């Protein structure tokens, strides 16, 4: 009878404390892994040469196999026992490199919740134009949504919304590892501060909040306290946990669609109910109006502070219009 063998890893400095030996017709496979069974989460398995199996291996689990079959990019394992008798080794890729995960039906269900994301148009928009930051690696494609994408360098966030030439909404995407590292090194604080300058912005995380408390390289309380501090300091930028990457992509699409609907209708509504002028987005000057260079020169002559290059602030354009009421 074939057996699945799990032994202690003799390398004491390794974070993967076990050796997993899988029998195969053309030669056994050997992996380093961090546990004896994928009970709570899928276990990462690092493939190594069979020569690393010690002659005097300290075997901690010797599990008789009822079935061990390779099916495409996975190996299905069925044990001779009543409970926890099914698992699977999955050969996949992550961040551009080949990886192997050992998962059970329970952890597979957690990783892929039984939900189907809707395909209906968000906010009734036929094709939502979404800007994708040029520095974004493995970007969302929004292939299942009614959206088009355009790659452009964004001042903040990974996915943005341009209305009348102005960035009115942005979403910063984070994996759990990126969220934790950017929080620890302080980069996340600056990113959230930049997002808070926009009318609408958010941070979306491709994981569960509960996974924060399973971290082993940093104290979970430090991460939880840091996220709570960011939310208190910049309450206009929510941090949303969306379980998986597809759900985070769906949430980003819906958020930007809602921001588009707000930006294109709220301005007119505010003008109707308020005596003060409220500009949400400043349209680009028309061909009949002044150029940016003309307004920049006028502002300098009027003693207004303006940058040497780039866009002018809305109040500078408004000051020019107030000073030239007869001009378009």
Helix and strand topology:
Elements: E1 3-8, E2 18-22, E3 29-33, E4 43-48, E5 59-71, E6 74-79, E7 86-94, E8 97-103, H1 105-111, E9 128-133, E10 147-152, E11 159-163, E12 166-174, H2 176-184, H3 187-196, E13 200-205, H4 220-233, E14 239-241, H5 245-273, H6 292-301, H7 314-323
InterPro entries: E3-bd_dom_sf, ERCC4_domain, Lsr2_DNA-bd, Restrct_endonuc-II-like
Pfam family, one: Lsr2_DNA-bd
GO molecular function: acyltransferase activity; DNA binding; nuclease activity
Characterise the protein shown here.
With 328 residues, the protein is α+β, with helices and mostly antiparallel strands. The protein folds into 3 domains: 3-105, no CATH class; 122-270, Rossmann fold (3-Layer(aba) Sandwich); 292-323, no CATH class. It contains 7 helices and 14 strands. It has an 8-stranded antiparallel beta barrel with strand order 1-2-3-4-8-7-6-5. Strands 10-9-11-12-13-14 form a 6-stranded mixed β-sheet, with helices on both faces. Helix 6 (292-301) crosses helix 7. The termini are far apart.
List keywords for this structure.
eight-stranded antiparallel β-barrel, 14 strands, six-stranded mixed β-sheet, alpha+beta, 28% strand, 328 residues, Rossmann fold
| Apparent shape | elongated
List the quaternary state of the chains: single chain
Stated plainly, the CATH topology of the largest domain is called Rossmann fold
Widest β-sheet, arrangement of strands: 1-2-3-4-8-7-6-5
